[in-house]
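This section describes the prediction task in plain terms. A model, or a person checking by hand, is given the sequence of a single protein chain and must write out its three-dimensional structure as a string of tokens. No templates, partner chains or ligands are provided. The sample shown here is typical of the held-out split.
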Amino acid sequence: MSRNILDEAHIHPAVREQVGSYHRELVAEVQAAVAANTVVVVGMGLNPFPRKARKILDGLGTPYQYLSYGSYLGGWRPRTALKMWTGWPTFPMIFVKGTLIGGANDLQKLVEQGEFARMVA
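The expected answer:
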């Protein structure tokens, strides 16, 4: 898979630091959680899909770390940094053993296929 990302050579030197440091601390927090936990769910308030993902995991008895950032009413700028980092456009962002598996519906599909159980084993 190849993902289109603007090459650094095409970012003017005057703004490279701004691009590279955009909410860096938030991205670092999520990276640390992903490194320290088998399953991580990154969500936001008022969005039903992070709740759906947590309900699936709770039903399976799977331990996970949940991180929530803002809601539809605020916090969109920091969440944009996570979207830029992962390339995933929506919440939740679910990671299993360091791998982004998608959102709640993607988790449900992996559970139904038996793939999720193999991943966390």
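For orientation: The first helix runs from residue 13 to 21.
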